[in-house]
Design brief:
- There is one protein chain.
- By secondary structure, this protein is of the alpha+beta class.
- Among the domains are: 35 residues, no CATH class; 167 residues, no CATH class.
- The chain is built from six helices and five strands.
- The strands form two sheets. The chain has a three-stranded antiparallel beta sheet, with no helix packed on it.
- α1 packs antiparallel against α2 and α2 runs antiparallel to α4.
Length: 312
């Protein structure tokens, strides 16, 4: 998973934020409730080493060790087993040798956490469950279906007229199981054109219904009722028209392929079920393309705004 540069909660210390530059953590941490600056942090000044006091009992140049300090043998990795001993089960060195940066990317499980890592909370909000997402999608589909009844009704009536002859003959043969080797009558000449027009209008209605509302607030009517919202992975901000369009067309454009033996419907079904198999952010295929994540919206925010974020 590629995470865009930005300020995120440090998985090693959830009380602080650090800047992720796309490859590792840089700069000094800041409190998690503080407003991060724009862009990366300024470079840290090199610390000035303080000279150790020299006493009469310790000759100059001799390193001092506080009482009770355990001396680590040379060559032993920090936090690792002593030389000649096998590492314990599940132990791994982090960060890799020679890399001064520490900690995994934001949203990744931290290697030293025992057991199952905690679930990510993008921007301080819990991830939306699959049931809530499915309920919101069904509500939106119902609204789009009603719009199609109003706009596409006349074209659907024409299509039924074009295919009524072969459908009536097929029903008659089912009721009277007599042997008949004659082919069914052909549908009308305008059947193919009507199907294309109906699918094109249905796709445009879906786009006009969903994309503007998602661009402005991250919520369609169904998502608003279910208390969930789509937000960018890197920041709690509106999606914008471009990102909302990229998110929709992965799921919406296959509607035009329903004409091809239901291929578009199969692609949409795979996309709709994909959050069940994605970890840890439960992103659908259209979320991955637009780099968004769906979260639960706080029901009673304290100040009308969303709380500060956690790692996505």
């Amino acid at each position: 998973m590629s995470v865009a540069p930005g300020w995120y909660v440090d998985p090693a210390d959830p009380q602080t934020r650090r800047y992720w530059d796309g490859e590792g953590w840089i700069g000094a941490p800041i409190p998690v409730d503080a407003t991060p600056p724009e862009g990366p942090p300024p470079p840290e000044p090199e610390p000035t080493p303080e000279p150790e006091p020299v006493t009469s009992a310790t000759p100059p140049g001799t390193p001092t060790t506080p009482p009770g300090t355990q001396i680590t043998p040379p060559g032993t990795p920090v936090g690792g087993p002593p030389p000649g001993h096998p590492p314990p089960a599940g132990w791994q060195q982090w960060p890799p040798a020679g890399d001064p940066r520490h900690g995994p990317p934001p949203g990744w499980p931290y290697p030293t956490w025992p057991g199952r890592p905690p679930e990510p909370r993008p921007h301080g909000m819990p991830l939306a469950g699959f049931g809530a997402r499915l309920g919101a999608r069904l509500i939106d589909f119902g609204i789009v279906f009603l719009l199609n009844v109003l706009v596409n009704g006349w074209f659907v009536a024409r299509l039924l007229d074009e295919v009524s002859v072969p459908l009536n003959e097929f029903g008659r043969r089912l009721q009277n199981p007599e042997r008949n080797t004659e082919p069914l009558p052909q549908a009308g000449d305008q059947t193919g054109s009507l199907i294309v027009v109906i699918l094109l209008i249905a796709t445009m209605l879906w786009l006009a219904y969903e994309v503007p509302s998602m661009a402005a607030s991250g919520q369609s009517f169904g998502k608003r009722l279910m208390g969930i919202r789509a937000v960018p992975v890197e920041a709690d901000a509106p999606l914008g028209f471009g990102r909302a369009l990229r998110r929709w067309n992965t799921l919406g454009l296959p509607t035009l392929l329903w004409y091809c033996c239901g291929l578009g419907l199969l692609l949409q079904l795979i996309d709709a079920l994909s959050p069940l198999f994605d970890h840890p952010l439960r992103q659908a295929l259209h979320d991955k393309r637009a780099q968004t994540v769906v979260v639960k919206v706080p029901r009673t925010p304290a100040d009308g705004a969303n709380p500060p974020g956690d790692a996505p």
